[in-house]
Amino acid sequence: MERFKLQLEARESKKPNQLRRVGKIPATLYGPESKSATLQIDAMEFTRLPAAAYSHVIELGTPEGAVNALIRQVQRKHVNNEILNVEFYRVAKDRKLTVTVPLKFIGVSPAVGKGGLLVEMFQTADLECLPSDIPDFIEVDISKIEEIDHGLHFSDLKLPAGVKVLNPPEELVARVIPKKGGGGAAPAKA
Length: 190
Description:
Largest sheet: 6 strands, mixed, barrel
Helix content: under 10%
Number of strands: 13
Order of helices and strands: EHEEHEEEEHEEEEEE
Number of helices: 3
Shape: elongated
Strand order of the largest sheet: 1-3-2-6-5-4
Radius of gyration: 22 Å
CATH class of the largest domain: Mainly Beta
């Protein structure tokens, strides 16, 4: 797993809009057994983070020293998607936390070969695990869907040790449905 790093600075005594004009993003760092801290990040450095950083522990360089944290929320302006504020949640290495990770669909479903259409119901899964156990993704092997109108549930997913799915176990992750206009395999003639 790749390690992500980000440098934060003590917050200047400027208003948030003034910070954004000079290329800084206001940020907050909070978590269990610690006081909240108001900080700021270089906007260019933050936007260079890959999408995977949003579901993994990031090592933050702060005025207090190195801190492990998760990005909990990124507040954006709805008109132009400008980042207004970022919230970081300080994590303890020995305390489980809740994260959302992407699902990676692998394999080929035999049901699709029979004329079905694969429908992916979810793109992510909610997990509970220790910070060191956060996977990059959870694989969904669709080759196990052998018949049209069958699917895979969250309970069917193969998980790494120490990782628990929080989505309801009976909820469908992916399903093969008949194509419109009759679809599916033609009935056998007698």
